[in-house]
Amino acid sequence: MLMSNEFAGEVAVITGGGAGLGREICLALASSGAKVVALDVDLVALEETLLLSKQRGGFLKVFQCDVADSENVKSAFKFSEKEFGLCTIMVAAAGIALYTDYLSMVEKDMDRTIAVNLKGPLLCAQESLRQMEKAGKGSIIFISSVQAVMSLFGCVVYAATKSGLIAAARTLALEAGKMGVRVNTISPGTIDTPMLARDLASMNREEAAKFLEKVKAANVLGRIGTPSEIADAVKYLSSSNASYVTGIDLRVDAGFAALKVI
Fold first, then answer.
1. Are both 82 and 209 inside the same structural domain?
2. CA-to-CA distance for 201 and 158, rounded, in angstroms?
């Protein structure tokens, strides 16, 4: 992959950088000239991201971090500043989805979902904003989901956290604007990630095939998205091309939220 200098001089902190969307966002920004710190609770997965980054080129370092732990988050941003300077891009991509009937959901799982999916991004936004205020610029992006506006069975708490991210970003944009910082969310549709693979692994071949056909038919383009398509959206919102864009939710869902399946 050819390196570019589109994000030269930018320092990006990306949560969930060990796999899926977070990993692809890390690699895309690093190969576009940004200095990137990938955060994840899984150190082994982070090492894989680091190896991939070395193959693609760019400046990337990793830091093991539980985004739900405020002290972990503070340490991660101190590390980032020490290694690369003030953070100017923060993408909260870490998330967990526990598909379960609401009455069967235990409090422990409820707490963890809220902590990782909602509290974690807010903690990271707070630490990044402190640095961005000093830098006089910045872009904060929360990875939400179309499930914030389109309901599916078994996703009550997950959907609540993703909807909360949209409201939080829209409101934070009001406070951050005076600092030169833009705040937005991206709501992906169904993307080919390890999370999707995990769902398919619980099915037999016939069930998996039917499930995939239903997923493809649920959007107007008739296919599943790729992590790189979400990374492209992140690059757009982080770039000068989006210098007048803040407080929005960008849906990257192939028209899923616009399609009524009869």
1. no
2. 20
Are residues 26 and 114 both part of a single domain?
Answer: yes
Mean pLDDT (whole number) for 20-25: 97
Count up the domains in the chain and report the number. 2
DSSP label at 242?
G
Q: What is the pTM of this model?
A: 0.94
- DSSP code for 118: I
Q: 143 near 186, Cβ under 8 Å?
A: yes
Check if the beta carbon of residue 13 is closer than 8 Å to that of residue 77: yes
Structural domain of residue 39, as residue ranges? 11-189+227-251
Cα 248 from Cα 174, distance rounded (Å) = 12
Domain for residue 85, yes or no? yes
pLDDT, position 133: 98
| Rounded Cα gap, residues 185 and 165, in angstroms | 7
pLDDT at 48: 97
- Read off the pLDDT of each residue in 217-229 and give the average, rounded to a whole number: 92
User: Among all residues, which ones are annotated catalytic?
Assistant: 158
